[in-house]
Predict the structure.
Amino acid sequence: MYDNGGRVTREGIRIHEPGDFAGMHKAGRVAAQILDDIAPHVVPGQSTGEIDRLITEMVATHGATSATIGYRGYQHASCISVNHVVCHGIPGPKALKDGDILNIDVTVIVDGWFGDTSRMYVAGTLGRKAERLIQVTHDALMKGVEAVRPGNTFGDIGHAIQSFVESQRMSVVRDFCGHGLGRVFHAPPNVLHYGRPGREAVLEEGMFFTIEPMVNLGRPETKVLADDWTAVTRDKSLSAQFEHSVGVTADGVDVFTLSPGGLFYPTRR
Ligand code: MF3
Ligand code: CO
Ligand code: CO
């Protein structure tokens, strides 16, 4: 646990000060602006490695630092997860094909604060099943965000996401979760995208964390490839994810990673 004063709950969750929200807004906005600016570059024929190279440049242009380069040996400024890749896809030379759907996940550090967000993109033509998956995943994230207020619990967030996704006959990935963040990348709690009302820690004003549900068209099981990063659906079904970094306010939620251009969903330009 890092210690710069302030309070930490018995679950190890840091309670931030009112003045800390401004730092998270600045970091979150830079990450969201990069996701806006990359949209026109997501086209058939483009490689995910080139998209990541552009993101690396954008991070520098903002005077920010990539949180992922050097994180546990990871070497890129983004994770790019195409089609049946659930998360942590490694950018590389493979070109996008018409109809590919992909999540781009960027985390930056600005003045010591972490901004972590991801969205779905499509290269070319969006297929009907993929469109429904992406819409359900976006709406699932927003149902989770709407459950954020003091007095609710992390189980309420997970339940809001899981019950909606399963009502749409899709499945929530269990193997990866959201996380506390702030002046660190990954902190308590684990923010599960499934759960039961009233379970887990109680939300308090000043908690900062991500909500980042991964939703599969098929079964929820995943496996990690031999590169030790790329997580894929075991049944090879399509997977989608959206992520916001949020803070708990006195009466609700503050979303730090709103798209400056209104491009969070749909992500097109
Ligand atoms: N941004 C991811 C998250 O949402 C973490 C990526 S870690 C990396 O928590 F090393 F794979 F980049
Ligand atoms: Co995250
Ligand atoms: Co992320």
In short: The mean pLDDT is 97. Residues 105, 107, 116, 118, 243 surround cobalt (II) ion (ligand 3) (CB under 6 Å).
